Every structure is written in structure tokens, then in C-alpha cells.
Amino acid sequence: MGGWAIAVHGGAGVDPNLPAERQEEAKRVLSRCLLLGIAALRGGSAAVDVVEKVVRELETDPVFNSGRGSALTRQGTVEMEASIMDGRGRRCGAVSGLSTIKNPVSLARLVMEKSPHSYLAFDGAEDFAREQGVEVMDNSYFITEENVGMLKLAKEANSILFDYRIPVTGVETCSASAGSMVDNALQMNGLPISIYAPETVGCVVVDGNGWCAAATSTGGLMNKMMGRIGDSPLIGSGTYACDFCAVSCTGEGEAIIRSTLARDVAAVMEYKGLGLQEAVDYVIKNRLDEGQAGLIAVSRNGEVAHGFNTTGMFRACATEDGFMDVGIWE
Amino acid sequence: MLLVVVRELENCPHFNAGRGSVLTTSGTVEMEACIMDGNTKKCGAVSGLSTVVNAISLARLVMEKTSHIYLAFDGAEAFAREQGVATVDANHFITPENVERLEQAKEANRVQIDYTQPVKEDKPQETSSGKGDSHSGTVGCVAVDGSGNLAAATSTGGLVNKMVGRIGDTPIIGAGTYANSFCAVSATGKGESIMRATVARDVAALMEYKGLSLKEAAAYVVNNVPKGNVGLVAVSANGEVIMPFNTTGMFRACATEDGYSEIGIWPSETDCVLPDPTRN
């Protein structure tokens, strides 16, 4: 009982054919960020400081889809979003539609602490960033050559998969059902898995005092419409923390929003009395309908858990009693 | 049905949605709305609209005609044009009353809050002026049809003197709006408090996970949000309807198939007197 715990993720829905060296690279980045968090926790840092610090590091590294290396909109631009929540007092901050902010998670933290609001988006968020003097970069800094190529592939695949101007039939809005139109290749959010940019990043921490915090940051969905907001900045969907636990989700944003996935992990603990891993398994099994997603979570008791129904999730975790794990597959 | 009701409320300048929306600190209008179908859990949301006549209808189009759930600001406006929904000049939404409210809020705010200063932890942030109504006037509607299908919709202009780009609880699934097979909920009040308490989802979650009735669940949630911060309307699959709030009052009305109807503003007011429509 007790003690600190930390988990980080780099997205769910991994191409099974991802080259071995890319897998190793992803694990290396996850390990480095995990160790950074562990060092901060050993130094007595508060949970909310640790999640911000770790997510900043993940954003700055181009390997994952957040900050530098973000997925591109249909117009080839970057629109980043992030949120942070401190379980202590359930304070939260979120940002969407950022195009020049080097570390969106830190701007989300500033929204939480220095504005009267919880969520700022697009031009207003950019203005606030300048007012606060956070580091800004030219939009081109965030756009990697690899993602420009991915966008092109996504556009080609999408023209076959779905056209949003045509009403989607059936109950699915995230077009998973349209998948039957291409060979039975693995898909996420209507995109072939090889093109899908899964690597939203997130971190959850419980510190030595039992306080929980969560943060999530993303470039969003490759080939998304301009102005599209996903689950990452939405408190209760992509990110949530309270007295019981902290949760960060990743995967098909629309499925996560419909299932208020992050809040539901906490809600089944709070209202149904389940333990952390039970709660995680419950929501992955019962709340996602046909959607695909994964999540990481920690409890105030110092437990750590993850769950996903995708092909793989980049994740790493550690607890104070010496347990440590870095993995991609089941 | 929901769409018709919320569109009508949006078009009424007495409420803070559509025409009559409150103004940002720059004097502009940024409207947001959300709709959710409890049966399919399909949902649509929009934020940062400045020219769209009926934000709620655009939220519905996002739900039905895109692969996304939530579009905001320029991208949402571009989508509105693509879909050919009615748009007007942004000035259409700005009423003289709201220009005045903004001025009052700015004067009060200068004294009450300077957001460049760190806000003390655990202390509810007061952003509204002493007028009491400056964060109210969001409109919402929940309904259950004869077959037990539930839906919720909410629309707002947000908070008086809000920062440009501020998103409140209204468009956020689980915060200001939520519907599933148990109930449909639309909340109003201090957006930041509603968001962190995931008010709408929590009413449903308490029914689903703790077996509470709609009334118990809503009372539990409203009691756990700081006083003066939240009100909500909710219906359950079996036709129960409730409208609790912990603010001084809430404009509300409800009706059930068996002929019961109620219109009120203050606590436990049951007289059916409509607010004078000619009152400014």
C-alpha cells in the first residue's frame, strides 16, 4: 500500500509490421522519459509537476505524435492539443488548435493556473501563450518529412475509405465499418494501421503523498479536418484525475469521447467499488463498443495498470517497490 | 424534436445562446453547442462559432456528416459553409444588453480577478460579476420519446467577458451534455466547475454503476459541486424528469406525457408564469 507509481504511453494501435529498429527506438524514448519521471518522484516532486515534465519530454521528441512530429490536418498544418489534471482539487487545464507552441502540455498547465478558465483553443490559446511568454516555434518545426508522406498516403487511402460529405450509414461515426471496402488490413480510425499515427503521449503519476495527476498531448488524427478536436484535451475523455486514480487514454478519439473513458475508470472505482486493474479491464471491455483504444492508470494506493483492445500500445511503467516494465505488445 | 426546441431558444435573444450570446473580453461572440443521442451514443459538438445562426444544428451535422465528433473555430465555420447552413454577420448576435453586461463585467473584474496572478488552490475562482446572472442563460433540452430513447442538447454563448478562445462545459460530452440508455442530462452554470466534476456523465454513471434513481443521482452530483455553480435538467428512460440546481435560480420548464408540466425560475416554484417576454 502506498508509494509512488508512474506510467507513460506513446499511443495505442501499433502496426505489427513496424520495423524492429523503430520499435526499439520507441522503447528507448519511453524508458528515458520514464526514468526522468522516476528521478523526479524520488526527489519528492508533486504528481502534477512530474506528469508535465514527462509529457514535455515526449512532446519534444519527434518519435511520437505530439509537439514536434504531430500528425497533420487535411491542409497539411499542425493543430496540437493537450490537457492536464491534478487529482488534488480536480483542477484542470486544456488547450486545442495550437500551431506554434513548443510544449502544449505546459500551456495547458498555465491555463489551469494562470487563467480563470479551464480550456482555451485556437487563436485565443495562441494569444494567451504569447502573453505568458512560453516558447513558440515556426509551424514548420512541428512538421516532419515523414508525416508529410504519411498524409499523402492517408489521403489516398481515405478517398477509398470514406468521404465525410456522404452520410455515414449505421450507428458508427468513426467509420470502422467502412473498413470492409479495402482488404482486411488492420485499421484505426478508418486508416490502414501502417499510416495511422497512433502515438499520442500521456503520463499518469501518483506521488509519495498519494496525490494523482494525468496529462495527455497529441497532434491528433492524420488527415483530420481543420478544427477537429479529439479526446486528448477533453477532461473525462482522454484525461482524468481525482482522489482515486489518474488516467490517460489514446486511440480512436471519437470512441473515447463517446465512452468518457478516463472518467469511467475512476467512476467504476468510486461508484462500483472496483480495484484499479478491474476498473481498467471493465471499461476496455464494456465501454468502447466497437471502438479501439488503450489507457494507462495509477491509483492512490501506488498501483499501476494498463489496458487496450488495439494491436499493441507503446507504454512503460514503474512503481516505488522496484517494478518496471516497458512494452508494446500484449 | 430537441433540435427544434434548442433552435428556438437560440433564436430568442433573452437567452445566452445564438442571438443574445454573451460577449468575450474582446466584444466578440463565440458560440458553442452539443447534441447526443442516448440510444447510439452518437454525438456532435461545435465551439468558437461567430456567424452560424443555429449552433445546435451544426453540432448535429458534425455528428451526422463527418467522421469526427467535435469541430471548432475556423474549421467549424468552414464546415458550416460547406454544409450550407444559415450564417449571418457576426454583429447579428450582439445585443445592446450584452454590450452593457460586458462593460459591467469588465469593471467588476478589474477588481475581482486578475488572471495573471496565480489563483489560490481549492478556492473557487470567481470570474462573474456581482450581477449573479453573468454565467447563466445557457439553454438546454433533454427528452425521452415514447419508446424510451433519450437525447440531450445544450447551446451557449459562454461566460460574459470570457477570454477569446475559452471553451466551457457545454460542448464537452460528459460535462455539459450527455445521454445514454439510462438518462439524458444537460447542465448549466459555471463551466469550469461542471467540467472538472464531469456533471452530465456522473448523473448517468451513478445510475449505471451505483444503481441510484435519476433523482438521487442528480441530487448527489449537484451537492458535490460548489454552491452557486450548477443546475441541470435530466430525464430518465422511464419518463422521470428532474431539474435540480444549487444556484439562486434556474430558468426551466418540463412536461411529461401524463399531463404534468412545470415552469419555474426560483427554488420549488411551481407556478406556470412565463418570464415577461417584453422585459429587457
Structure summary:
Chain A is α+β, with helices and mostly antiparallel strands and about 325 residues long. In chain A, about 35% of the residues lie in helices and about 25% in strands. Helices cover about 30% and strands about 20% of the residues of chain B.
Total DSSP E strands of chain A? 15
Structural class computed from helices and strand pairing of chain B: alpha+beta
Could you please say which CATH topology of chain B applies here?
A: Glutamine Phosphoribosylpyrophosphate, subunit 1, domain 1
Query: What sequence of helices (H) and strands (E) makes up the elements of chain B?
Result: HEEHEHHEEEEHHHEEEE
Provide the β-strand percentage band of chain B: 15-25%
Q: How many strands appear in the DSSP assignment of chain B?
A: 11
Specify the CATH architecture of chain A. 4-Layer Sandwich
Going across the biggest sheet of chain A, name each strand in turn. Answer: 4-3-2-8-7-1-14-15
Number of separate domains of chain A: 1
Give the CA-based shape of chain A: globular
Question: Helix and strand succession of chain A?
Answer: EHHEEHEHHHEEEEEEEHHHEEEE
Looking at how many chains there are and whether they match, the oligomeric state comes to heterodimer
Count every helix of chain B, treating DSSP H or I runs of 4 or more residues as helices. Answer: 7
| Rg calc of chain A | 18 Å
> Which stretches of chain A are poorly predicted, pLDDT < 50 over at least 5 residues?
160-184
Give the percentage of residues in beta strands of chain A: 15-25%
Distance between termini of chain B? 28 Å
GO biological process, one term (chain A): proteolysis
Protein name (chain A): beta-aspartyl-peptidase
Subunit structure (chain A): Heterotetramer of two alpha and two beta chains arranged as a dimer of alpha/beta heterodimers.
Pfam family, one (chain A): Asparaginase_2
List its traits.
heterodimer; A: 330 residues; alpha+beta; Glutamine Phosphoribosylpyrophosphate, subunit 1, domain 1; eight-stranded mixed beta sheet; four-stranded antiparallel beta sheet; 15 strands; globular; B: 280 residues; 11 strands
